């Protein structure tokens, strides 16, 4: 990954099929660009942090890679802004 200044961050809140938390968690650990993965309590089941250098790279992770993970029911993506 390039310099820290060029890195952008997105947080993805993930709802999974009942009983699939650990399996989805393990699959997400293997994906490139995902730098943190946490199982959480609340309306969503897993939170991941994605670091990327371009919108294309983020889209590839979200649409290309995460959609291939079985057990994901719904996602909410929040892109962090530089203020």
UniProtKB/TrEMBL annotation:
Pfam families: AsnC_trans_reg. SUPFAM superfamilies: Dimeric alpha+beta barrel. Residues 12-82 form the Transcription regulator AsnC/Lrp ligand binding domain. InterPro entries: Dimeric_a/b-barrel (IPR011008), Tscrpt_reg_AsnC/Lrp_C (IPR019887). Coiled coil: none annotated. This is Transcription regulator AsnC/Lrp ligand binding domain-containing protein. It comes from marine metagenome. The lineage of its organism: unclassified sequences, metagenomes, ecological metagenomes.
